[in-house]
Amino acid sequence: MKKVMLLLLSVLFLLGVVGCGASQQANQAQGGGSAAKAPLKVTLPTWTGYGPLFLAKEKGFFEKHGINVELSIIEGLAERKQALAGGQVDGMATALDVQVTLAAAGIPMQVVWLLDDSHGGDGIIAKNDINTVADLKGKKVAFEQGSTSHLLLLTALKQANLTDKDVEMVQMSAGDAGAAFVAGKVDAAVTWEPWLSKASQANGKILLSTKELSGIIVDTVGFKKDVIEKRPDDIKAFVAAMADAMDYWKQHEEESNKIMAQGLKIDLSEFTGTVPGLKFFNKDDNKQLFGTDGNKGDIYNSTKNAADFYVEQKIIDKAPAAEDVLNPTFVNGL
């Protein structure tokens, strides 16, 4: 009798488990509950311009719009590209020209949000005896090949009738390049704040910055094209949350600065000290820069210029169309 009762109880238990599993699967199929949704995974390097992503997460704006966003800091561009190509992440916060090179490398990406334009936040630091960009000829210059730093250096060298073949390249990320310069290991480095400000500590100076070359470096957030096609509602929610974060920052500057510095794991003074070197974009700025189908905004020209430049330098074989790199749908839907 005991064996019969145990058998009946086991059957009932199994039916209950199967029933719960079927119910859970049904809820997931219907999109029931944010817990059932896979998170949007976005990677980024440590940089002030990407702070608003942490503000949107910490203040619950992603959650407010029904999505879960996972942010991961990966410093090296090659490692971030690898994470994208391998499917470990869905999107990347990076400079516009990097999005262009990703598209050219067969990783279809589409930019959906514009974060900022560098206006003094990036530049070239050099030893005190190097007075002009032309003086970099034959010098050791640290920068990351194929990155935004490379584009900035190429642009500066071109104006001085030089190319990157005229300098001794030392390959490393922008942050490592700044540290290498301060440590006296290279003659110059293409980097960003706070390393620009630290140049004087190493008997150096800022040779040139994006104050002189504004409009070249625009920070963006892009997602893989297949992710956008499969999850348009989530991308729409992401963009709406970013717009909310920018509005919140304007109204609560001190609190927001603390949240963003903490998210990026940098000192508050470092964060606030680098903000003036960037022009941050809100919803209205994004709408203006993306423009409409009948009247495309300035970001299309910036994208085309970056693509043409990389083709000219033989870093990419073919320039992707700006229309393939930019997706204004979600900004225009705000």
How would you classify the helix and strand content by structural class?
A: alpha/beta
CATH architecture of the largest domain: 3-Layer(aba) Sandwich
Shape: globular
Spans with pLDDT under 50 lasting ≥5 residues? Answer: 1-35
For the sheet with most strands, the description reads:
6 strands, mixed
Can you identify the CATH superfamily of the largest domain?
A: Periplasmic binding protein-like II
Total beta strands: 11
- Average pLDDT: 88
Tally of DSSP helical segments: 15
Alpha carbon gap, first and last residue: 68 Å
Q: Remind me, CATH topology of the largest domain?
A: D-Maltodextrin-Binding Protein, domain 2
> How much of the residues is beta strand, in percent?
15-25%
Report Rg. 24 Å
CATH class of the largest domain: Alpha Beta
Number of spatially distinct domains: 2
Summarize the structure.
This protein has helices at 2-29, 51-58, 61-64, 77-85, 96-104, 148-159, 174-182, 225-230, 232-251, 253-264, 268-274, 283-290, 298-312, 322-325, 329-332, and strands at 40-44, 69-73, 91-95, 109-118, 122-127, 140-143, 168-171, 188-192, 204-209, 218-224, 278-280. It is α/β, with parallel strands linked by helices and 334 residues long.
General description of the model:
The protein has 334 residues and is α/β, with parallel strands linked by helices. The protein has two domains: 37-118 and 217-332, D-Maltodextrin-Binding Protein, domain 2; 122-209, D-Maltodextrin-Binding Protein, domain 2, CATH 3.40.190. Helix content is 46%, strand content 18%. It has a six-stranded mixed β-sheet, with helices on both faces. The longest helix is centred in the N-terminal third of the chain and has 28 residues, at 2-29. The protein starts with a helix and ends with a helix.
